[in-house]
Design a protein that fits this description.
mainly beta, 42 strands, four-stranded antiparallel beta sheet, about 500 residues, Immunoglobulin-like, globular, 3 domains, Methylamine Dehydrogenase, Chain H
């Protein structure tokens, strides 16, 4: 029986087809797939196939299968699988992480008000609701007061505390934060990242992270920290040191600080006086000056050796101390005799004196050009502006009850004054019958710009070195308040 046989390609052609087939199979089996990954936010941590990668960098994988994971604080974790299909081009993969939502409460001291968050009406305070991770703008409205502005940095569930003001402020309220008992002076770290809080009724100081908006460290100071009494702090940037005085032991303690806000104890200075308070440092003289409230003298300590150099005696209850920038003079505020003194540092003799009957001189701020001094007087409720040359009076700023701490902006344009408020009739160590205030003056026009309503006995005060933040402590409330100065700076 005849049959038809199918035609077969010649042997040579069959060989070529087979070779092409096997070469193609080998190519596709061995080729690699390139990819780049970008995640928003850019500081997220990214893993591909369980290995951490760098965003924006080109990588390759043989099999074309990706297991992608990304995570970042404040954002929902992300995980997915991706199949790469084109071995001839680089696959760009972009992912936006979703912010987490947190339960947030907003309280307003001094009465409730209408609350607007991110331009949306959220009803009256107290507010409770869900907000996503990050910074949100807050506006408080009330019939009998002007608009109040603030901001909240949501990083976890929690409560944000603000204060009702009686006038519109060109400042954002960042918030009110709890701290240890009887917070005295506040000091920004040189990089403005951290706030150091000296506690008069505590066993040392606390460190507040300005970015995280939380206290990150509680530092017990010295072997007799239980005696408490820590009034003042001072940073010496050249040695990366933070100094804190303890009245009840007559000592000053030095801690070395790091950029991450951690500190380690370094050494103790013996003041040789009784009840030490304020401190000042002169890099030109390498001297530390410490005022001693009870022994009526000022300690002069060689900073390098830590040894007492001498005592300036006969100064009635000295409080504020400040060196001139060139180290030629030391200014001392006497709380007890109404005097303000200028000492020569080559002879340690008085070069000039300013006097007011019954004055209680407390704190000193020296202008950037070294031509003007500002001194608070708690008795007369004023701040004096003096000429540094002869201590002649240039101007008197009228302020609220009991001005405590003062500070200047870096260009000396603005004067900040914390006013404790009226004393309690039963004693100044008891809560005041009225809350205190913080007043801000323009030193060019010498006019009051605005008044911030504070808590009970605003005492410590500091302005950050970059002029972006104002902080002040409420002594009787065991808290401190933070304000953003951007709105004020824009008016310059």
């Amino acid at each position: 029986m005849c049959g038809i046989r199918p035609l077969r390609p010649p042997k040579k052609i069959r060989f070529i087809f087979g070779a092409v087939f096997f070469i193609s199979l080998f190519f596709f089996a061995s080729c690699s797939y390139s990819y780049k990954i970008m995640i928003t936010p850019v500081d997220a941590i990214v893993f591909v196939n369980s290995e951490r990668i760098i965003m924006g960098k080109q990588y390759s994988v043989d099999h074309g299968l990706l297991s992608l994971e990304a995570r970042r604080d404040g954002y929902e974790a992300y995980k997915t699988s991706i199949k790469l299909t084109d071995p001839f081009s680089t696959k760009n993969i972009a992912v936006d992480l979703e912010k987490r939502a947190y339960t947030v409460r907003i309280r307003l001291l001094g009465g409730n008000a209408h609350c607007i968050i991110d331009s949306k009406d959220r009803g009256n305070t107290p507010f409770e609701g869900s907000l996503k991770y990050g910074i949100h703008s807050v506006v408080f409205k009330k019939k009998d007061i002007s608009l109040q502005h603030g901001e909240i940095d949501v990083r976890q569930s929690g409560t944000f505390l603000f204060r009702t003001q009686t006038e519109q402020l060109p400042l954002d309220q960042v918030g009110i934060f709890s701290c240890g008992s009887a917070p005295k002076q506040l000091n920004f770290s040189p990089d403005n990242r951290f706030l150091f809080i000296a506690l008069l009724d505590g066993e040392g100081f606390q460190i507040f992270d300005m970015q995280k908006k939380e206290i990150t460290s509680q530092v017990k100071v010295g072997k007799q920290s239980r005696l408490k009494g820590f009034p003042e702090g001072l940073f010496i940037e050249r040695s990366k040191a933070y100094l804190i005085s303890q009245m009840n032991t007559d000592k000053v303690f030095e801690y070395l600080y790091k950029e991450d806000g951690t500190v380690t104890y370094n050494r103790t200075f013996e003041t040789g006086g009784v009840f030490c308070k304020f401190m000042a440092y002169s890099p030109q003289l390498d001297l530390l000056a410490v005022s001693n409230w009870v022994s009526n003298d000022v300690s002069l300590i060689n900073y390098t050796t830590g040894k007492l150099f001498r005592l300036l005696k006969g100064i009635s209850t000295p409080r504020g101390v400040e060196f001139s920038a060139d180290g030629k003079y030391l200014y001392i505020a006497s709380f007890g005799d109404g005097g303000f003194y200028k000492y020569r540092t080559d002879t340690w003799k008085i070069a000039a004196k300013f006097y007011r009957k019954n004055a209680a001189m407390r704190h000193i701020a020296l202008s950037r050009d070294q031509k003007r001094l500002f001194v608070s007087d708690m008795y007369h409720f004023v701040v004096y502006e003096l000429d540094t040359e002869d201590l002649s009076l240039l101007y008197t700023y009228k302020v609220y009850y009991n001005p405590n701490t003062i500070d200047l902006s870096s260009d000396s344009r603005f004067l900040f004054v914390s006013c404790r408020g009226p004393n309690n009739p039963k004693g100044y160590t008891i809560r005041s019958p009225k809350n205190g205030k913080v007043m801000i003056f323009d030193t060019n026009s010498r006019k009051l710009l605005l008044t911030i309503q504070g808590g009970n006995q605003p005492t410590g005060l500091d302005v950050s070195g970059d002029d972006r933040r104002l902080v002040f402590s409420n002594f009787m409330d065991a808290n401190f308040e933070v304000y953003d100065l951007g709105g004020l700076l824009n008016k310059k």
